[in-house]
Write a structure and sequence with these properties.
The complex is a heterodimer of chains A (114) and B (115). Chain A is built from no helices and 11 strands. Chain A is mainly beta. In chain B, 34% of the residues are buried. The chains are: A mainly beta (114), B mainly beta (115).
């Protein structure tokens, strides 16, 4: 069974440019998460989807970040415009939505903003 | 509020030594789950174990064992006879039912196993 797939693995952009990350969750997982991981820290939740609905986006900086999960499968996270402080690893995870469910993570996208 | 503390930032051991990674959590909820994840240099977080708040039975899986103690709010992880492949960052995480099942991660402990 395929795991969570993220692309690209690495992205280097200049500040003020837009950038997008893509995530394909494990088949059948209705819950999808986007996390931000700064160097030397644990992941921090940005947004959580239950199917197509964003049920928790309280930590998403909505002035520059946006996300979508059309058809409740793949998801895209966008930053526009990117700032130097956005340099980090962006992780996607999915779960089957059961209580205390295990989250399965992708390999992440490492973003460098110059 | 929910919080996870991993006081050990970095640990170095020599291969075949035993090593224990500490995790202390905070929550007022009575129903919660605790997790350990491993993050090797490749970057992907790999699930290791989940425990719920009603099951304090300790667990052993091969060279891994976990000690869950509600009285001290701790969920420690021990690797017996460590190997170089165990080198990674290990994260403890807390999931609380009344917090939408969102994970709160600790800051991680970087384990280096030297040959």
């Amino acid at each position: 069974e395929a795991g969570v797939v993220q692309s690209p693995r690495y992205k280097i952009i200049e500040k003020k440019q837009p950038v997008a990350f893509w995530c394909n969750p494990i088949s059948g997982h209705n819950t999808l998460y986007w996390y931000l991981q700064n160097l030397g820290q644990g992941p921090e939740l940005l947004i959580r989807y239950e199917n197509e609905e964003a049920v928790d986006d309280s930590q998403l900086p909505k002035d520059r970040f946006s996300a979508e999960r059309l058809k409740g499968v793949d998801s895209t996270l966008k930053i526009q415009p990117a700032e130097l402080g956005d340099s980090a690893v962006y992780l996607c995870a999915s779960s089957d939505g059961q209580g205390g469910d295990i989250q399965y993570f992708g390999a992440g996208t490492r973003l460098s903003v110059l | 509020a929910q919080k996870v503390t991993q006081a050990q930032t970095e640990i170095s051991v020599v291969e075949k030594e035993d090593v224990t990674l500490d995790c202390v959590y905070e929550t007022r909820d009575t129903t919660y789950y605790l997790f350990w994840y491993k993050q090797p240099p490749s970057g992907e977080l790999v699930f290791l174990i989940r425990r719920n708040s009603f099951d304090e039975q300790n667990e052993i899986s091969g060279r891994y064992s976990w000690n869950f103690q509600k009285s001290t709010s701790s969920f420690n992880f021990t690797i017996t006879a460590s190997q170089v492949v165990d080198s990674a960052v290990y994260f403890c995480a807390l999931s609380v039912r009344n917090y939408g099942q969102n994970f709160v991660f600790g800051p991680g402990t970087r384990l280096s196993v030297l040959p």
